[in-house]
Design a protein that fits this description.
- Residues 22-201 form the ABC transmembrane type-1 domain.
- It is a multi-pass membrane protein.
- The chain crosses the membrane at residues 21-47, 67-94, 148-172, 184-204.
- By secondary structure, the chain is mostly helical.
- It has one domain (17-210): Orthogonal Bundle (MetI-like fold).
- Helix content is 86%, strand content 0%.
- The protein is built from nine helices and no strands.
- Helix 2 runs antiparallel to helix 3, helix 2 (15-49) packs across helix 5 and helix 5 (84-108) crosses helix 7 (125-155).
């Protein structure tokens, strides 16, 4: 109870600081999510339409995904320096993998009979992609977005170790001055942010899947 009281007191006394860190964390994560979402979607569509390149692209994406986040940040520092730009690049590289994989799986999972019927009716490849494949694959793609968003919010905490902003600053400062309450406060806000985003995207995913069942 004493520790919980200490955490609550810290939130009250440093309310403005935590609000500023939360805003910076959301901005950092949102930037990476948008970049990874667009790039991952386009890459997923490309490899789904060009099967010959799917293997190499997925292999490279898997390799990037398995590199520890702190190691990836360290490798990018000599190229990009320290601060938010390096953190955004690292988070984008991590976020691309779920998007590529789920976009590819969703599009290739569309029934070939449906595609053949559309082709027989004179639909172009672009029309088939925009009006058939992507809508039918949207449930799987949203699942990838959900995974990417939660992961990005969580990994963004480590960005403070290279001078980037966000709630990781509270965690890093708490560790350096041996303040467990501050470390816990930053970690708790990141967890709550990730849970909130996951819940909202979960509702979107359910709505999309429900709509698909009605088609």
């Amino acid at each position: 109870m004493d520790f919980l009281h200490e955490v609550i007191q810290l939130y009250i006394e440093r309310k403005d600081w935590f609000l500023e860190l939360t805003g910076a964390h959301i901005t950092l994560s949102l930037t990476a999510v948008l970049l990874a979402g667009v790039l991952g979607l386009l890459l997923g569509i490309w490899i789904a339409e060009c099967p010959k390149v799917s293997g190499p692209v997925l292999t490279v994406a898997n390799i990037c995904y398995t590199i520890p986040s702190i190691s990836l940040l360290g490798m990018l520092i000599p190229l990009l320096g320290i601060g938010n730009p390096t953190a955004v690049v690292a988070l984008t590289l991590y976020g691309i993998m779920p998007m590529v994989r789920n976009t590819y799986a969703g599009i290739t999972g569309v029934s070939s009979d449906i595609v053949s019927a559309a082709e027989a009716m004179g639909s172009t490849r672009l029309q088939i992609m925009l009006k058939i494949k992507l809508p039918l694959a949207m449930g799987v793609i949203i699942a990838g977005v959900r995974n990417m968003v939660v992961m990005t919010i969580s990994v963004a905490a480590i960005a403070s170790f290279i001078g980037a902003g966000g709630l990781g600053v509270a965690i890093y400062r708490g560790i350096t001055i041996y303040d467990t309450a501050m470390t816990f406060s930053g970690s708790l806000l990141i967890a709550l942010l990730a849970i909130l985003c996951d819940g909202l995207l979960g509702l979107v995913e359910k709505k999309i899947k429900k709509g698909m069942h009605l088609i």
